[in-house]
Design a protein that fits this description.
Subunit structure: Heterooligomer composed of large and small subunits.
Helix content: 40-55%
CATH superfamily of the largest domain: Response regulator
EC number: 3.1.11.6
GO molecular function, one term: nucleic acid binding
Protein name: Exodeoxyribonuclease 7 large subunit
Number of helices: 11
Number of domains: 4
Order of helices and strands: HEEEHEEHEHEHEHEHEHHHHEEE
Subcellular location: Cytoplasm
Length: 401
């Protein structure tokens, strides 16, 4: 028996015809929880419907979406009317939704909200407990899958921005029941057992459905992040994805790449800042030195003006000036007194009895030194006779009165 060889397209077209010709698959009513919801700019709506055990991709084209009377939300339980068909190009099957209506909040979303509210009430999300990311990170700890895109993105971004940052990976599970315990072990390792001092930790993974990210909605993991002594950056999924880790971590990054941007200072930018600060410091020091030199010169002038040495020199000059004035004053006084003395001398000489002696007269003194002025005082006896050039003592006897 010869079996005809078919192309991949032949197989996909055959499967599509089976789906399209099945009455039940063309008139489905399906209940499930919304995840990976995306309102596209084209007007189409892309999402998945899931239950406890599986999920199925869905698309609602613009023509049907415009007729929908409510806006779908992540985690919402809905009932859709749809047909199941295959997308030939990819070989995937999906639901093509015509109508959708609210069927209540999904179980996983409800669990998420309940845990978020509980931990918020316990204060795990309070801003006052958030630790600051160091301005300049030297060592980075990363907790994620060693084979995922997240670690590659982080390494690429960090090394592009600053290749001096050392990156230490703790390979962890990021999906499944065992993932929370593995993530917790990573936090404990970096906080307690790592040989290197870690400046900051990034915990996360790439994007996915709420089920794939569910490990990051674990209460024990949230409390371990809260207890971490090292600042923790949560980088789980894409920008639209939120997990409990995002709320309890010190910083939430939209993606792993964004987390790498947050913790790494651009090396060129840093070198530019250092050069700017160095120039500013040099300029400041030069100005400081110049201003100090000007001030020193000014103080030297003030010191010279007020120097004790200069003060003494000035005082010496004052003393010399005063001495000169005193000498002149004394000289004038002496000359004046000399003149007065000469006047008195002349008067005295004019009236001096010595001048009488110069004219041939003598002065007669008794033996008692009394000058004989009257004949009544004169009698026989010893007398002192004063001449102009000296004296003689003589015995005088009166012969006849």
């Amino acid at each position: 028996m010869n079996i005809k060889t078919l192309s991949v397209t032949d197989i996909n077209n055959y499967i599509k015809r089976i789906f399209d010709n099945d009455f039940i698959l063309n008139n489905l009513s399906v209940k499930g929880e919304i995840s990976n919801l995306k309102y596209h700019s084209s007007g189409h709506i892309y999402f998945s419907l899931k239950d406890e055990f599986s999920k199925i991709n869905c698309v609602m084209f613009k023509s049907d979406a415009s007729k929908n009377d409510f806006r779908m939300k992540e985690g919402q339980n809905i009932i859709v009317k749809a047909r199941l068909s295959s997308y030939v190009k990819e070989g995937n099957y999906q639901l093509y939704v015509r109508e959708a209506q609210d069927a209540g909040i999904g179980d996983l979303y409800a669990q998420f909200e309940n845990l978020k509210n509980k931990l918020k009430d316990e204060g795990l999300f309070d801003e006052k407990h958030k630790k600051n990311i160091p301005s300049y990170v030297k060592t980075l700890g990363v907790i994620t899958s060693e084979t995922g895109a997240a670690i590659k993105d982080i390494i690429n971004v960090v090394h592009r921005r600053n290749n001096s940052i050392d990156i230490f990976l703790y390979p962890s599970l990021v999906q499944g029941e065992a993932a929370p315990k593995s993530l917790i072990e990573g936090l404990k390792y970096f906080n307690e057992r790592a040989k290197e001092k870690i400046d900051v930790i990034i915990i996360g993974r790439g994007g996915g459905s709420i089920e794939e990210l569910w490990a990051f909605n674990n209460e024990e993991l949230a409390k371990e992040i809260y207890k971490s002594k090292i600042p923790v950056v949560s980088a789980v999924g894409h920008e639209v994805d939120f997990t409990i880790c995002d709320f309890v971590s010190d910083v939430r990054a939209a993606t792993p790449s964004a987390a790498a941007e947050i913790i790494s200072t651009d090396k060129e930018e840093l070198l530019g800042k250092i050069a700017y600060i160095e120039n500013k410091l040099n300029s400041s020091m030069e100005n400081k030195i110049y201003n100090s030199r000007i001030r020193i010169e000014h103080l030297e002038k003030v010191l010279k003006l007020n120097s004790p040495k200069n003060y003494l020199i000035n005082k010496y000059k004052e003393v010399e000036t005063l001495k000169g004035l005193l000498d002149r004053s004394i000289s004038l006084k002496i000359n004046s007194e000399k003149q007065n003395l000469m006047k008195l001398k002349n008067v005295l000489e004019a009236k001096s009895p010595i001048n009488v002696l110069n004219r041939g007269y003598v002065i007669l003194e008794s033996d008692k030194g009394e000058i004989i002025k009257s004949k009544e005082d004169f009698s026989s006896g010893e007398y002192k006779i004063n001449f102009k050039d000296g004296y003689k003592r003589a015995e005088i006897n009166i012969i006849k009165e």
